[in-house]
Amino acid sequence: MTHAPRIFSGIQPSGGLTLGNYLGALRRFVEKQGQVETVYCLVDLHAITVWQDPARLRHQTREAAAAFLAAGIDPAQSILFVQSHVPAHAELGWMLSCVARVGWMNRMTQFKDKAGKNAEAVSLGLYAYPALMAADILAYQATHVPVGEDQKQHVELTRDIAAKFNHDYGVEFFPLPEPVIEGTATRVMSLRDGSRKMSKSDPSDASRINLTDDADTIAQKIRKARTDADPLPGSMAGLKDRPEARNLVNIYAALTGEAPDAVCARFEGQGFGAFKPALAEVAVGVLSPITTRMNALMADPAEIDRILLAGAERADAVAAPIVADAREIMGMIRGAR
Ligand code: AMP
Ligand code: TRP
At what angle do helices 54-71 and 272-298 cross, to 10 degrees? Predict the structure, then answer.
């Protein structure tokens, strides 16, 4: 059985979105729009795998929706919705957690990172999270999943779960979805530590650029970003052992659409005293219009809710019949929906 191409991806509303989310995910979601069917989800059920203050979660979910719209997601072209509005996710998540094996979960590096030494005390949901992510993707029989580098392992696990389901029930029901990891910014690093990814959950706000930051804040964070005292080399090869410097050049290149080597060549011999203001200007030029649109959208939360509810109806119309078929394949008597 061949499946029509369909893109699915998700972002957790567990904090404000960052430049990493924009370059690694959002901007690429916009590029795919119009080429194939695109389904984009604010995964609030994933967010609650760690404690979320309820009022903040509501705010962040609407703000993430505003970021999608401001970045160029068109709700007429893409299905944009909130995960918890569509019951297929939680339902198929359970069913697939009965297909996935504990040994597979134990290999997930994101779980190990997030749980740290505290693995006994984290939520059961945090452990089962990859099965829910597989359900997100497979409930739409999605074939392609644009993500940043850090999600590759989870998409590969989704392929394993889909293959085991197909094998165990003797069907060709779920596609084996492909991770789509492209571009120069698949892993944007922290501005404070070149060995860690830029993350909305980093305790240090100075480590990231938020899509809600104003121009002065962006410039200040870039000015204070950790670097070294050496000038820029003529190509990226010269930045091999300089992760912070490499990160800033990559960000610049991703923002302007240039090759990182071309950016190095242009700034060759100059120090970060010259490079950082240039980077700040480029970052503000790209992000300011988005932030302005986000703020305008956030002034009318009822309109955001209306867009999300309409998206959920369309998502449900795709996912509910697929999950009903999956139930039947697994041997459940067909119910009312
Ligand atoms: P999350 O914020 O963990 O829900 O991630 C949402 C999407 O953004 C996923 O596709 C991630 O891979 C991507 N992403 C998150 N942080 C980064 C980063 N620092 N660099 C590149 N992509 C990222
Ligand atoms: N786990 C992803 C992250 O933390 C978010 C996510 C949830 C997702 N479900 C998904 C991404 C389905 C792609 C497809 O970034």
Answer: 110
Ligand 2 pocket: which of 43, 86, 159 to mutate (most atoms <8 Å of CB)? 43
Question: Which among 200, 224, 240, 276 is annotated as catalytic?
Answer: 200
Which residues lie below 8 Å from residue 103, measured CB to CB, with a gap of 6+? Answer: none
Domains of the chain, CATH where assigned:
6-181+300-329 (3.40.50.620), 205-296 (1.10.240.10)
How large is the angle between the packed helices 301-330 and 152-169, nearest 10 degrees? 40
Distance, in Å, from the CA atom of 66 to the CA atom of 20, rounded to the nearest integer, reads 17
Sheet holding 144-146, edge to edge: 78-82, 37-42, 6-11, 144-146, 178-180
Torsion over CA: 226, 50, 56, 62 (sign): positive
Pairing status of strand 178-180 against strand 144-146: parallel
And the tokens for 337?
């929906």
Quick: pLDDT tens for 31-71.
999 999 999 999 999 999 999 999 999 999 999 999 999 99
Residue nearest to atom 10 of ligand 1 (CA): 147
Give the distance from CA 51 to its chain's centroid: 19
Instruction: Please check whether residue 208 is in contact with residue 191, taking contact to mean a CB–CB distance below 8 angstroms.
Output: yes
Q: What pLDDT shows up at residue 156? A: 98
What average pLDDT does the chain have? 96
Q: What is the tens place of the pLDDT at every residue in 188-207? A: 999 999 999 999 999 999 99
